[in-house]
Amino acid sequence: MQQPPLPSFTLSQLALRNGQDRSEIWVAYKGVIYDVSNSRMWRNGQHYEHWAGQDLTPEIAHAPHTDQVFERFTPVGILV
């Protein structure tokens, strides 16, 4: 069965899912928004020097891991 298309969100809407303003903790990477709420690494919306509610695409190049880390998380939307 085909999955329905993911909803679209703006950067402003993504910013509200920062673990501070709402319980959702989301980050974007390469245009896809992922729910990282259940990750112990993203408690309170922070992961080392990175903050949730943002597009992390430019920052992944400096991370000690590859972008394969996003395979662990559920896509919840598309960043527009």
Overview of this structure, please?
- The structure is a single chain.
- By secondary structure, this protein is mainly beta.
- The chain is built from one helix and six strands; from the N terminus they run βαβββββ.
- The protein has one domain (about 10-80): Cytochrome b5-like heme/steroid binding domain (Flavocytochrome B2, Chain A, domain 1), CATH 3.10.120.10.
- The strands form two sheets. A four-stranded mixed sheet has the order 1-6-3-2. A two-stranded antiparallel sheet has the order 4-5.
- Strand 2 (about 25-30) and strand 3 (about 30-35) form a beta hairpin.
Strand content: 25-35%
Broad shape: globular
Give the CATH topology: Flavocytochrome B2, Chain A, domain 1
| Biggest pleated sheet | 4 strands, mixed
- How many domains make up the coordinates? 1
Give the fraction of residues assigned to helices: under 10%
**Average pLDDT, all residues:** 92
- Please give the radius of gyration in angstroms: 12 Å
CATH superfamily: Cytochrome b5-like heme/steroid binding domain
What does this entry show, briefly?
The chain has about 80 residues and is mainly β. It is about 5% helix and about 25% strand.
